[in-house]
Amino acid sequence: MDIATMKAFVAVAESGSFSRASEQLFMTQPAVSKRVAALEDDLGVTLFDRLGRGIQLTEAGQKFLTSSRRILADIQISRDEVLSLGADVGGRLRLATSHHVGIHRLPPVLKGFTQTYPDVELDLLFMDSELACDEVLSGHIELAVVTLPDQLENALLTELVWPDPLSIVCAPDHPLASKVMAGIEITAETLTSYNAVLPARGTVTRTILLEALQPFNVSVETSLETNYLETIKMMVSVGLGWSALPSNMIDEGVIAVPVRGLEMQRRLGSVCLRGRTLSRAAKAFIGLLQG
Questions:
Q1: Cβ(270)–Cβ(105) under 8 Å?
Q2: Which of 257, 259, 264, 260 lies closest to 175 in space, CA to CA?
Q3: Cβ neighbours of residue 66 under 8 Å, at least 6 residues apart?
Q4: What's the pTM?
Q5: What radius of gyration do the chain's Cα atoms show?
Q6: How far is Cα 272 from Cα 148, in angstroms, rounded to an integer?
Q7: How far apart are CA 283 and CA 125, in angstroms?
Q8: Disulfide engineering: 166 pairs with which of 7, 62, 74, 264, CB 3.0-4.6 Å?
């Protein structure tokens, strides 16, 4: 078993086709098929069921795919660590961030990093915070800068960079806004009279909101859900409902709605794998974040 053979297997599994895998690997289809067949002989198991023109991973194939991805990721990490050992900070840094952090918090850090360390090949990936943490946990991503989870995996090491207070918001012409302008006190129960536009289920922001409302024993009617805070802000601004957004996103398009006894805050920061030796590039990026 060699690395090229393992890469061929993963390419076939992820593309679902020997022909597409051969295009990705710049190899002939017979050569890819030969590598996979040799791998099956070596392991003594069938990795793919050949179903007419299609293929499907067997149970053994699914398990081997997980192991292969981890092995290939470890090899890439090893290469990156070796490249980063020169006198200058260089090599490749795989960095994941959420859309909100990437748009509202990271630009000055990214600018300073690329100017200070021009030899680093920055691989910036945008994804949900929850997925980014999973990618760090699996070893596919070296560093993430995201909304920090409330319930932390023991294997993850986090560092708070930005406290991120949340506010209930609505459009300036929403009925809640009229109550605010009239000086009427808004309670958690008041919110239940109007539809909400919330982050998707399972996101940290939604969890923080629902946990903050829990002591008031109220339920929220949700009209729309989305993962992207910018989309939520747009939906709120046109009157589709109220929501919870980072306070720094409030502008003329939405207004803050003070709710009696309701305080919410997210934590934004870095996430890495506990015990993993970070590359010099990753350490330099964390240094800029903390500076």
A1: no
A2: 257
A3: none
A4: 0.66
A5: 24
A6: 11
A7: 18
A8: 264
